[in-house]
Design goal:
The protein is about 20% helix and about 25% strand. By secondary structure, the protein is of the alpha+beta class. The chain has an eight-stranded antiparallel β-barrel with strand order 3-4-9-7-8-6-5-10. A hairpin with an 8-residue loop joins strand 5 and strand 6. The protein is globular and about 45 Å long.
């Protein structure tokens, strides 16, 4: 079982990842026409209209080493699921990477998680409200998807896939530590492709990348996600 020390270490590491994304977007420079007059880029196309949120939504993450299929829990974690789908539907997850693998030395192996997400702050949507497991009824189990965050209410586009049960990341309203009280937000689980997640977890680490507790947890060659798309939900998986 994960210890509270490990939870604190995990929280600090996620804070470091969130901090790297906290810088505001750079101002867009005007494009110069050939005759020297300044012109601006045309306005970006508007985001597609949101699709009504279903209780369960299947999504395929196609990586360079295989595909991971996940079921998002719109019924129990609607805010977090809708946020994830916002990135999916606007194709902002295309080209992201899994860049981190946390290895816990104790317990049955594999024990830890892999983390991926959008590292370009210019492509982030606003942070979302935190959905603690004490409210959703979900838990950090092997195969769970969990949002990375700084303080509660700062999650944007970084997420983790758990390789093992890590109930210590669930909300604990009886804890004295405010961060442990609210825990992290689970919003889905892997339905196929855990072997791909394991390959990411087993990938070589960089001895130099990362600051603080993130040192030694960053992949030497991040695994690229080519596309992230909705998939039809099989009839036997519908509620």
């Amino acid at each position: 079982m994960i210890t509270r020390f490990a939870v604190a270490q995990f929280a600090i590491a996620l804070w470091c990842a969130a901090f790297a994304l906290s810088a505001g977007p750079a101002a867009a420079a005007p494009v110069r026409a050939s005759h020297g007059a300044a012109v601006h880029k045309p306005a970006a196309a508007p985001d597609p209209a949101p699709i009504p949120l279903a209780d369960t939504v299947r999504v395929a993450l196609v990586t360079t080493i295989g595909t991971i299929e996940v079921d998002l829990d719109g019924k129990h974690a609607p805010i977090t699921t809708a946020n994830f789908l916002h990135y999916v539907d606007t194709k902002r997850f295309d080209g992201i990477t899994f860049y981190r693998a946390m290895h816990l030395a104790w317990g049955d192996q594999p024990n830890g998680l892999v983390q991926g997400g959008l590292r370009d702050p210019r492509r982030l949507f606003p942070p979302i409200a935190h959905e603690p497991t004490s409210a959703t009824g979900l838990s950090h189990k092997a195969g769970s998807l969990s949002m990375a965050r700084n303080a509660p209410g700062t999650a944007t586009a970084d997420f983790s896939i758990l390789l093992s049960d890590m109930s210590g990341l669930d909300a604990d309203p009886t804890a004295t530590d405010p961060d442990l009280q609210v825990g992290y937000a689970v919003f889905g689980h892997v339905v196929s492709g855990m072997d791909v997640a394991r390959k990411i977890w087993d990938a070589p680490m960089s001895p130099t990348l990362g600051d603080g507790v993130m040192r030694g947890q960053m992949l030497a060659d991040p695994v690229k996600v080519l596309t992230v798309r909705r998939e039809p939900l099989p009839s036997d998986a519908k509620g």
